[in-house]
Amino acid sequence: MNFDEFKSSFKNNEPPPGLSPLLLAMWYDGKNDWHGSHELAQDIHTADGSWVHAYLHRKEGDPGNAAYWYRKAGKPVAVGSLEQEWESIVKALL
Known about the structure:
The protein is mostly helical.
């Protein structure tokens, strides 16, 4: 699956089959289900999981918590738009 196919899957009520848990979290976020996305991301204890978790707390408006998760991910705190970061994460995970 490429990025455009991933984005176009938002027209469906269900995520595409075979997504990794982190891509599934980003899919739910893309469908404006922050809670569902966070439920998935918070249980993935990898650097990429921490990156998704950081993004979600940044989106939530909790910069202190987001900064903690960016450190765990080994990433600088994002300063661009949320849309840019979402796209960067999805492309990296694809």
